[in-house]
């Protein structure tokens, strides 16, 4: 359904700091971020930390780290929902004053008794407070909650950009609590007040909040506030079609950084989870901003597919600017608490990027293939590489060394020199490649022998062959 956009678009992400930042939250943040940036609007961050028992500073820091790694920059300072509790209470009392809310003195025991009786009699357990229309003169001097005076007749229709028009019978919606008896606001009230005060024009969130929208819009109406545009996006499922959880693999954003996926690849992949632009799988941030629309979001749930993520990650690594990729590598090493690269290693890595990027799907794979420039002599071969350096192979490497001392140091000349040497041994170059790989890197999975020789240069090549031959 077509939706016109207001003069300034304002979106938000509002995670709860009760654990790691879930990949689903990251995808929701990404959609909000792209939409705001596409329209030159604002993208805001609100930390919904009113649950003081479960909210932790560590979880809040995890949200900040996840957002920063993904490159989802927000406008202004992050807002703490807890710090706005007085404002939430103020709105509840305004609703009490304008008649759209009322005091309810029912106790928890009374509500429980009502529901048990209703269940036994086969009636709806939706609680209908007897205090809704009670004469204020009958109010006791006991604690009370403030409840919304929700409409009992008719229907509430949510005009959703993704889901279409969704209708709720008002008879199925309760007079929800806005302010508890201890003066603290409920989540439902706080979200609406914060979204209104922050000027949020588009609420883009998971479709598990769709039922909340029906109740929350009553608060907007009661206060005479303008409703935001709603876009409830489908959840992310695992490959088996069930809600994404630990049994499917990593679910926290930071886990993916530690697995070695570069941030641009994660943005690309998350954008494709539930949104599409034709058959385009691989695209840049600029293309995502140009193409993205709320109308392009699918109603059906998306399935997380590691093979597709790996494929996209490899494409981004191959296409990325060398210095940008270096930044991703350094951030990855920091995330896994690995030793930083020194200047010599960075220089070698940059020289080798051209032959490392095409075959790597993750940063650990790239770094594994970069062992020949990240390590230093003497290279100790791993178990597989050691098998390629038997006494016969060591002798052959010793014989090869003089042929390389005077060879021109370019690919064509090196290919000719090594090819001629192999032929002189009644052999093929393929049989020579294994020992050369082992000598030059101590590994069997490497870039081509010629690329390694060109990157490290003549002197280092000869020195490593000498090390291996002795």
Describe how the helices and strands are arranged.
Blueprint: E1 10-13, H1 23-38, E2 42-47, H2 57-70, E3 79-80, H3 85-98, E4 101-104, H4 108-120, E5 145-148, E6 155-160, E7 164-169, E8 177-179, H5 187-197, E9 202-206, H6 210-223, E10 229-233, E11 236-237, H7 253-258, H8 263-272, H9 285-291, E12 302-303, H10 306-319, H11 322-335, H12 343-356, H13 363-369, H14 371-374, H15 383-387, H16 391-405, H17 411-424, H18 429-441, H19 449-469
Parallel strand pairs: 1-2, 2-3, 9-10, 11-12
Antiparallel strand pairs: 4-5, 5-8, 6-7
State the name of the first-level CATH class of the domain at 10-77 and 188-237. Alpha Beta
Question: What is the fourth-level CATH superfamily of the domain at 10-77 and 188-237?
Answer: HUPs
Q: Low-confidence runs (pLDDT<50, min 5 residues)?
A: none
- Please name the CATH topology of the domain at 10-77 and 188-237: Rossmann fold
| Total strand segments | 12
* CATH architectural category of the domain at 10-77 and 188-237: 3-Layer(aba) Sandwich
Helical residues, percent: 40-55%
Q: What is the averaged pLDDT score?
A: 93
Q: Shape, please? A: elongated
């Amino acid at each position: 359904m077509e939706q016109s956009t207001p003069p300034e678009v304002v979106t938000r992400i509002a995670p709860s700091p009760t654990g790691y930042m879930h990949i689903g939250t990251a995808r929701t943040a990404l959609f909000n971020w792209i939409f705001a940036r596409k329209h030159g609007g604002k993208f805001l961050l609100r930390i919904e930390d009113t649950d003081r028992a479960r909210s932790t500073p560590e979880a809040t820091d995890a949200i900040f780290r996840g957002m920063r790694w993904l490159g989802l920059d927000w406008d202004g300072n992050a807002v703490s929902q807890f710090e706005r509790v007085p404002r939430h209470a103020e709105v509840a009392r305004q609703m009490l004053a304008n008649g759209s809310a009322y005091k309810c003195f029912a106790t928890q025991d009374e509500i429980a008794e009502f529901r048990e009786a209703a269940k036994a009699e086969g009636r709806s357990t939706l609680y209908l407070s007897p205090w809704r229309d009670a004469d204020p003169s009958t109010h006791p001097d006991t604690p009370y909650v403030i409840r919304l005076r929700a409409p009992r007749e008719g229907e509430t229709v949510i005009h959703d950009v993704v889901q279409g028009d969704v209708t709720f019978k008002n008879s199925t919606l309760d007079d929800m609590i806005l302010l508890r008896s201890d003066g603290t606001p409920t989540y439902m009230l706080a979200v609406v007040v914060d979204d209104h005060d922050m000027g949020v024009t588009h609420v883009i969130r998971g479709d598990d909040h769709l039922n909340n929208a029906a109740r929350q819009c009553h608060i907007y109406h009661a206060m005479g506030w303008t409703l935001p545009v709603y876009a409830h996006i489908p959840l992310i499922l695992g490959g088996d079609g069930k809600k994404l959880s630990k049994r499917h693999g990593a679910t926290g954003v930071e886990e993916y950084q530690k697995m070695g996926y570069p941030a641009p690849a994660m943005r690309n992949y998350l954008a494709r989870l539930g949104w599409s632009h034709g058959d385009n799988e691989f695209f840049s941030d600029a293309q995502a901003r140009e193409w993205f629309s709320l109308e392009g979001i699918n109603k059906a749930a998306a399935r997380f597919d590691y093979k597709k993520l790996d494929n996209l990650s490899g494409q981004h690594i191959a296409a990325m600017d060398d210095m940008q990729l270096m930044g991703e590598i350094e951030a990855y090493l920091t995330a896994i608490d690995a030793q930083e690269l020194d200047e010599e290693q960075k220089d070698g890595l940059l020289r080798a990027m051209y032959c490392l990027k095409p075959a790597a799907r993750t940063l650990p794979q790239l770094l594994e293939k970069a062992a020949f420039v990240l390590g230093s002599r003497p290279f100790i071969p791993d178990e597989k590489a050691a098998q390629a350096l038997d006494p016969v192979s060591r002798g052959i490497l010793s014989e090869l060394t003089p042929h390389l001392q005077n060879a021109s140091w370019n690919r064509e000349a090196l290919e000719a020199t090594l090819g001629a040497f192999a032929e002189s041994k009644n052999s093929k170059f393929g049989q020579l490649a294994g020992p050369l790989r082992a000598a030059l890197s101590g590994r069997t999975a490497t870039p081509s022998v010629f690329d390694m020789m060109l990157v490290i240069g003549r002197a280092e090549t000869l020195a490593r062959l000498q090390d291996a031959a002795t």
